[in-house]
């Protein structure tokens, strides 16, 4: 039976290939709720849950294309340092939020600060990485 289009609740733990945990619904103390196959989740997670039954647990490894995509070099942007307030206080590796015109703020990781410019990586922090999820389907509602 397919869960496509249904509201589901899952508990999950996400790890990288080296075993590092990057996320867990258990740590937050509540399952994740979403509409299955509605584009609210990364594609591979949605597909994994689509045919699960309540109480079932499965482990899936997702390649970048089924997760947050490959790292896109075009999303690494260099800005003139004069356009970046407090550029001298930005630690390399820190994620800050930028805004372009009237758009909503979006995350960008500081990758380089020079005398003339600041470089930001706007790829998702997990882009280019394979992800492993241990997923338990907790509830399904029509």
TrEMBL record:
EC number(s) recorded for this UniProt protein: 5.2.1.8
GO biological process, one term: protein refolding
Origin species: Ellagibacter isourolithinifaciens
Catalytic activity from the UniProt record: [protein]-peptidylproline (omega=180) = [protein]-peptidylproline (omega=0)
Protein family membership: Belongs to the FKBP-type PPIase family.
Alphabetically ordered keywords of this record: Chaperone, Cytoplasm, Isomerase, Rotamase
Task performed by this protein: Also involved in hydrogenase metallocenter assembly, probably by participating in the nickel insertion step. This function in hydrogenase biosynthesis requires chaperone activity and the presence of the metal-binding domain, but not PPIase activity.
Record-given protein name: Peptidyl-prolyl cis-trans isomerase
InterPro entries tied to this protein: PPIase_dom_sf, PPIase_FKBP_dom
Pfam families: FKBP_C (PF00254)
Domain of life: Bacteria
Tagged with keyword Nucleotidyltransferase: no
GO cellular component, one term: cytoplasm
Uppermost EC category: isomerase
Domain named PPIase FKBP-type: residues: 5-80
Recorded GO MF terms: peptidyl-prolyl cis-trans isomerase activity
Localization, UniProt: Cytoplasm
PROSITE patterns (alphabetical): FKBP_PPIASE
Lyase keyword on record: no
